[in-house]
Automatic annotation (TrEMBL), chains A, B:
Residues 17-62 form the HTH deoR-type domain. Belongs to the HrcA family. It comes from Nocardioides pinisoli. Residues 103-320 form the Heat-inducible transcription repressor HrcA C-terminal domain. Gene3D superfamilies: 3.30.450.40, Heat-inducible transcription repressor hrca homolog, domain 3, Winged helix-like DNA-binding domain superfamily/Winged helix DNA-binding domain. This is Heat-inducible transcription repressor HrcA. It comes from the Bacteria. InterPro entries: DeoR_HTH (IPR001034), GAF-like_dom_sf (IPR029016), HrcA (IPR002571), HrcA_C (IPR021153), WH-like_DNA-bd_sf (IPR036388), WH_DNA-bd_sf (IPR036390), WHTH_transcript_rep_HrcA_IDD (IPR023120). It holds the Pfam family HTH_DeoR. Negative regulator of class I heat shock genes (grpE-dnaK-dnaJ and groELS operons). Prevents heat-shock induction of these operons. Keywords: Repressor, Stress response, Transcription, Transcription regulation.
Length: 340, 340
DNA sequence: TCTGGCACTCGGATAATCGGAGTGCCAACT
DNA sequence: AGTTGGCACTCCGATTATCCGAGTGCCAGA
């Protein structure tokens, strides 16, 4: 049975432990928080909380430390997002508004997020998969060499160099340009790739080969989800504040190198909800000591990617959650604007 | 006076210390290296080397540790680059050949370099400043909205969205496209920016405003050296092997966040020579415990950027130098090929 | 159900001890 | 002059011993 006061005690334990990084005892608790009861009472509650698995004693005669389960309860029931201060809101707005292109938005977001939370921040680049084709440009560099440029609605630009078997003249290329754009402009890339596949059938015979080559490259670029896997990482210096190096820092540093791992951490579930993954809840047993606060972003429920922070299970959840949500909102808005 | 044998002793000390991370004593030295003399003799030499400032005793009755000056001598006089193994050469070649675009080349290089050296690797993106304009593309998205795409010889693509005051039709834009390309294709961007400045004077009166707007954006993009400051970092997990956290790891982690700092570390001197900066020789006093092995890259003495590794002063210089040089060569070659 | 009291536990900080690797120096040897 | 074995000495770091106190569980009384 977990009544209200026990929850208060749990909240107090979490807050104190996060702040001090040391097991918290009954006496210190009643002093620092106005619980209105005696240490002995708190001790009883603590014993109960421990029975339920919410807190844990490193050893007899030590204070209590929240378990993952304890943090979970804290996050689910007890945490009220710390509202961002006006100054912080302004900082977010001005910093992100100053971004000149997509790369810049991502870079600035990571930096911002890591500074706000003093944690390691991760921002996934907007995925190609759900974006639409804004424009395709074909440029004749030499008669047999075409530069193919694919511009997507998110602002991402993909470019490929194509070597043709037969020379092409400018007017031919212009026809082709019109054709590919008609077939794909405004269409989601998956559909665009499909639409383009039939295109070579419709062109003049002597252009078929060239068209086919170009279309192939285009669909390849469209279905190349390599860039879906791109992420930006920042704030690693914050790892330095971690206490335990071997169990906490090293595995995380290793994870940060592996972008695939990071994406899994962010949880590319496709949902835009703010999610918190605590310790062992995550997919990697080596990262049992780290938590992830993440959310999707994208204009109007349209999931373009995820961003979040990772840190020790002992982290400031309310603050991190608020920061992550705030940054995600601003990023979504920026991307939306650039997309009109 | 530093005779040959003393140099041998120094080399042995450096090698042993790098390998073991512990002060090395006279006895261990003669055992591990076939010096052919007795420990007592080595001790005499050590005393001399210490007088000269090449090595240093953490405390009486401890072994010796090389000083920065000692490493310097080692690197200048004693180090013979460890040749890359055939397997390593092949790994470099295949990995880098698989790169699909500029970003990919850089990403792969960082990864490669960090794995080869087991250090933190840094690769600067090719600078805009010395590259030439390959092509400029203007795309009419709406009558008053133009997407400007700038393609450079290094494969970098810059794109900007331009809002025009007056609507423009396709044929007008085509004229403009021809004009800007004629003015700038094949020209170094600094010169191209200058050449473009005069261009609006030559166009038809009703286009002047649009031309001016577009040209402004272009020269801005050309002189926007923001991307000159881009660097990729990899292998931070290797920091975990460092012993001393506070003095070695934390300052470096902080430095890695600051790309400007990194560029200074790489030494954007413009020279392509392989340089080694040891400990205090570098520009940052907080990084007195770290060394940098860096070199420029770019096809045929044409400096496009720098790459290198950073690590503790106690690092495997011969190995790192060889790896850095090898990777730089391959990167240069790749960039050259993509540039034909 | 809460509270004050009390005996008990145990980790971590502090102090004390000890061994050994390494040194410098010197006298003898080549 | 350069090299070597011997030897007394130093001092770090690992090991062990000691001790303090925060924190606990439990119980009896309000």
């Amino acid at each position: 049975m977990v009544d209200d006061r026990k929850l208060d005690v749990l909240r107090a334990i979490v807050e104190d432990y996060v702040a001090t990084e040391e097991p918290v005892g009954s006496k210190a608790l009643v002093e620092r928080h106005g619980l209105g009861v005696s240490p002995a009472t708190v001790r009883n509650d603590m014993a109960a909380l421990e029975d339920e698995g919410y807190i844990h004693q490193p050893h007899t005669s030590a204070g209590r430390v929240p378990t993952d389960k304890g943090y979970r309860l804290f996050v689910d029931k007890l945490a009220t997002l710390k509202p961002m201060s006006a100054a912080e809101r302004r900082a977010i707005a001005t910093l992100l508004d100053g971004a000149v292109d997509l790369d810049d938005v991502v870079q600035r977001s990571v930096r911002l997020l890591s500074q706000l939370t003093r944690q390691v921040a991760i921002v996934q680049y907007p995925t190609l998969s759900r974006s639409t084709v804004r424009h395709i440009e074909l440029v004749l560099l030499t008669p047999t060499r075409v530069m193919v440029i694919l511009i997507l609605s998110t602002g991402r630009v993909e470019q490929r160099l194509v070597e043709l078997d037969a020379p092409l003249v400018d007017t031919d290329l212009a026809e082709l340009r019109v054709a590919v754009n008609q077939a794909s402009a405004g269409v989601q890339i998956a559909a665009a790739a499909a639409a383009l596949a039939d295109l070579p059938d419709g062109v003049r015979p002597e252009q078929v080969d060239s068209a086919r080559t170009i279309v192939n490259v285009l669909s390849e670029a469209m279905s190349d989800h390599r860039s879906d896997e791109r992420v930006a990482v920042g704030g690693t210096a914050n790892l330095a504040r971690y206490g335990d190096f071997e169990t906490a820092v090293r595995p995380l540093l290793e994870a940060l190198e592996e972008h695939v791992v990071l994406l899994k951490l962010l949880g590319e579930s496709g949902t835009d909800a703010l999610t918190v993954r605590i310790g062992h809840e995550g997919p990697y047993s080596e990262l049992a000591a780290t938590s992830v606060v993440a959310t999707g972003y994208g204009p109007q429920e349209f999931h373009l990617g995820s961003l979040g922070v990772v840190g020790p299970t002992r982290m400031d959840y309310p603050g991190s959650m608020a920061a992550v949500r705030a940054v995600a909102r601003y990023v979504s808005r920026i991307l939306d604007e650039g997309n009109q």
